[in-house]
Amino acid sequence: MYDVAIIGAGISGAAIAYYLSKYELDVCVIDKEPDVSMGTTKANSAIIHAGYDPEEGTLLARLNVEGNRLCGELADELGFPFIRVGSYVLAFSEKEDATVKKLYNRGVANGVPGLEIHTKEQILAREPNVSDKVTSGLYAPTAGIVSPWSYCLSLCENAAVNGIDFILGAPVLAIKQTKDGFVIKAGDRDVEARYIINCAGIYAAEICGMLGKREFEIHPSKGQYFLLDKSQGNLMKEVMFQCPSELGKGVLVSPTAGGNLIVGPNAEINSEFGDLSTDNAGLDYVAAAAAKTTDKINYRDNVRCFAGLRANSDRSDFIIEPSAQNARFINVAGIKSPGLSAAPATALYVIDILKEQGLELTDKKAIKKVPRRVSFARATKQERIELIKQDARYGNIICRCNTITEAEVVAACHSPIPPVSIDGIKRRAGTGMGRCQGGFCSPRVHEIISRELGIPYEDIIQERKGSYIVCGKMGGNV
User: Which of 92, 339, 380, 415 has a 20 to 30 A CA-CA distance from 332?
Assistant: First the structure.
């Protein structure tokens, strides 16, 4: 029997697993997908918010500010990409100037450091591509950009090497309460656990309902995005928000941790569960809204459009609490924005709840650490020479867009949580994220996965179950 079973391998579940891995506990993470970070964590704005937006006194505010600080510490410790570029909330009218002042006061009350209100002249001096119709802006230096899947993977991989079990590709079908805890029907296996942490994202209400009663409801909100080529990546140095509305933080224009430019999202409330489609209407709205911030975006350099689903609930705050049906079942639900920013603080908050519910925590004497991934693209000329001397596979470029080598793809195959898909390698090594979006490198990645992990060609998927790439051989070749 596990001490704790975490349902959901997104950023919240990953952070909880990471911090629990520091204790002498038997813990597992269960997810219906074949890899971690495949839900909302994978498809979002990739921003670590400063914390001025949530209402004072809410969990959103408290955990956002603390999570922002902890994210910086974790990035230094684990090595995932995180850059404090700072952010602006831009105003374009007297009414929006008042909103900026309101957000400033709220941010100060929330404990956000370094906030400043800048004039039009100050903003344009820093960001000349912003529309000259801007009137003022709230500057938050602690805001940053992150690779959300790298963040999640780093937490999960370090949890895995410290004893956390990952049960992937195992949808939770039922939960039975027992005298000692719970039995979770996960795919084709039964998992016993003393405590459950429900981090199932947009499916959290359904998982909670398996105890007998749904204690809240989740109403997914879809957001569509443009991801532009690195040729557009320097258009803005900082994250550019518009003044928020009842639908959210609005359409942003931001650099990414990978050097691209991201534009979006819209907000399609009460979307269908699992609907990640994009369409002209949604993307046209995003482009029109972004034009208020800048008219300098060249959408001909767009390399990908995508959509993500936010887990909006029927409550205004995060839902982080023991279930009324069983106090050993902890709901971590309604984790909308700033959920990515709040994740490590959310994890520590959950651990405090577990202690209150009787879970005994004993520190491990030794903690293992996953070595940082080698980046051939960022290495100096001499470092590259030395890498090739050590392993000739560093001299074989697989992804030409991002200069990813065979050695890096092989290392990704043998990571603590091995990938089983083309996109699993993409999230670990960076292949397929360039201008061609995998057009050149995917066949080679496919070949390496098969060779290194012993998976037949026809069983390798693009991302999710059923997304097969090949179905057989022609002329003796796959």
Answer: 415
Report if residue 469 sits inside a domain: no
Which of these is catalytic: 49, 219, 414, 446? 49
Q: What separation in angstroms does the CA of 46 have from each of 255, 308, 477?
A: 10, 11, 40
Burial 261-270 (b: 16+ CB within 10 A, else e): bbbbbbbbee
Residues 165 and 70 in one domain: yes
Residues 68 and 156 both lie in one domain: yes
Residues in the chain, total? 478
Q: Are 303 and 227 in contact (CB under 8 A)?
A: yes
Q: CB of 92 within 8 A of CB of 133?
A: yes
Distance CA 217, CA 130 (A): 39
* Rounded Cα–Cα distance for residues 408 and 388 (Å): 12
The 10s digit of each residue's pLDDT in 436-446 is 999 999 999 99
Asked if residue 409 is part of any domain, the answer here is: yes
CA dihedral for 294, 299, 302, 308, sign (positive or negative): positive
Residue 126 lies in a domain: yes
The whole-angstrom separation of Cα 365 and Cα 37 is 29
Q: Evaluate if pTM is beyond 0.85.
A: yes
Q: What total number of domains does the chain contain?
A: 3
Residues 224 and 268: their CA atoms lie apart, in Å, by 9
Answer yes or no: do 422 and 302 share one domain.
no
- Does 286 fall in a domain? yes
Query: What are 74-103's pLDDT values in tens digits?
Result: 999 999 999 999 999 999 999 999 999 999
Q: Which amino acid is at 339?
A: G
Residues 239, 171 within the same domain: no
* Number of neighbours of residue 26 by Cβ within 10 angstroms: 15
Q: Judge whether 49 counts as a catalytic residue.
A: yes
Residue 426 · residue 433 · CB < 8 Å: yes
Are 43 and 164 members of one domain?
yes
Q: Tell me the residue type at 176.
A: K
